[in-house]
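*** Query protein ***
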Amino acid sequence: MTTLDGVRTAKQELSANLANDPRVRYLGVGFEGDEYVIMVAVADPEARPDLPDVFHGVPVRVIEAAEFTAQAG
């Protein structure tokens, strides 16, 4: 199992690789079963970037994320 610090480092590097891709909304760290995963939120799963299944030993999962607008509460 990869440590949380290792997952965060992998996420930061993958995020830097995808920084200029408008199809990617955001990246996060998740937990699936008994392992950490990198969650890549995309606007349209059909038009997603080419992503590896595993990045630096960490599984990559793609999720759909609708566009959102921050609101003051």
